[in-house]
């Protein structure tokens, strides 16, 4: 029996820096049936320089030019606010997670009750952060937006080293040795889930390439999932049907709110609908065994047919194809046996619709 798909309701920075809005997002995620709600933890000055420009989608979604630093300063949650968020998650019975975007935030979050550590797509090449995250000894969910397979492989080398060589100094040779060791691969298989992702908000479906999940699973032998930045819910549901073990989806209280991510996010009712569809698809996937389900067995007699006489057949006559037909119910000989009867001598008289015996 496989584990249920983990559904992460990505609040991100859609609280707009407001603790009250963060609490309302937690309520919405809990009401929708998400497994956990995830935020983003950072100090803007540790994440970007003053020369860092906004991405094109951020300019479009905020309606303002300017630098990332100013935008991100208004989207921070303080440490005290984050603790309050964690407490509200406990009150609502939903797990808390947050993505760290700087080392102090990572170490702060390590002291909280999180089921996993999330590596964002933009930090897949931030080796020291990968190493520090791996050495926390928690499950890792690693987003791979914008990455090549080679970059994912390089990141996994750092993670494998961090998982298996606690305290050892890192160098290129040691990283590669950890990645391709039996111990390193086993540690990765135990700890890491890779998320396919298209880093654009919203991402057009033609840029999604869900089959990349298959490529990563085959290349690395790890669990895969999908971080969805498309509009709507269809692609997340399709990813579950394709084998995603984790689904991460941005949501907001209102898509018209100002901010970089609201426009590409689901509203609460849509989030609830997506989660319901994910659970339906998850249940429908079942097993790879082909055979009648227990609920089908009673219907086989009703829906299938038996061989019956198509017309009167006199005892002692040799049966031909036109003597036989097949009708419901399936309480006699299978029609697949028709060729066995043609040419046989009838052992008795048959009226039309009588079951024909072998």
Broad shape: elongated
Largest sheet geometry:
8 strands, parallel
Total beta strand runs? 10
What is the count of distinct domains?
Answer: 2
CATH homology superfamily name of the largest domain: Aldolase class I
Quote the beta fraction.
5-15%
Please list the strands of the largest sheet in the order they lie side by side. 3-2-1-8-7-6-5-4
Provide the CATH topology of the largest domain. Answer: TIM Barrel
Radius of gyration: 29 Å
Mean of all residue-level pLDDT scores: 95
Count, helices: 15
CATH architecture of the largest domain: Alpha-Beta Barrel
* Helix content estimate: 25-40%
End-to-end separation in angstroms reads 43 Å
List low-confidence stretches.
none
Order of helices and strands: EHEHHHHEHEHEHHHEHEHEHHEEH
User: What structural class do the secondary elements suggest?
Assistant: alpha/beta
Return the CATH class of the largest domain: Alpha Beta
């Amino acid at each position: 029996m496989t584990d249920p798909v983990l559904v992460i309701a990505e609040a991100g920075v859609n609280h707009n820096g407001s603790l009250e809005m963060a609490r309302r997002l937690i309520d919405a995620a809990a009401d929708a049936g998400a497994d956990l709600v995830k935020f983003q933890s950072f100090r803007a000055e540790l994440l970007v320089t003053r020369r860092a420009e906004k991405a094109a989608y951020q300019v479009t979604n905020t309606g303002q030019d300017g630098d990332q630093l100013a935008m991100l300063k208004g989207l921070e949650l303080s440490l005290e606010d984050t603790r309050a968020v964690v407490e509200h998650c406990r009150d609502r019975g939903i797990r808390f997670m947050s993505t760290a975007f700087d080392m102090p935030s990572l170490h702060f979050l390590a002291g909280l009750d999180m089921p996993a550590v999330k590596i964002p797509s933009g930090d897949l090449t931030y080796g020291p952060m990968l190493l520090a995250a791996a050495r926390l000894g928690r499950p890792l969910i690693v987003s791979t937006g914008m990455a090549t397979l080679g970059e994912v492989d390089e990141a996994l080398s750092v993670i494998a080293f961090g998982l298996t060589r606690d305290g050892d100094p890192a160098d290129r040779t040691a990283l590669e040795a950890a990645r391709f060791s039996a111990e390193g691969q086993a540690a990765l298989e135990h700890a890491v889930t890779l998320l396919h992702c298209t880093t654009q908000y919203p991402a057009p479906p033609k840029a999604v390439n869900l089959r990349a999940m298959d490529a990563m699973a085959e290349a690395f032998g790890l669990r895969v999932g999908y971080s969805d930045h498309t509009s709507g819910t269809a692609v997340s549901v399709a990813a579950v049907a394709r084998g995603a073990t984790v689904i991460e989806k941005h949501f907001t209280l209102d898509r018209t709110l100002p901010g970089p991510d609201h426009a590409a996010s689901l509203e609460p009712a849509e989030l609830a609908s997506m989660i319901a569809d994910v659970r339906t698809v998850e249940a429908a996937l079942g097993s790879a065994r082909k055979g009648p389900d227990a609920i089908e067995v009673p219907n086989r007699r009703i829906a299938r047919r038996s061989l019956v006489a198509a017309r009167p057949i006199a005892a002692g006559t040799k049966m031909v194809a036109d003597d036989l037909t097949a009708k419901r119910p399936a309480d006699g000989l299978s029609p697949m046996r028709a060729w066995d009867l043609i040419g046989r001598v009838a052992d008795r008289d048959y009226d039309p619709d009588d079951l024909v015996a072998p």
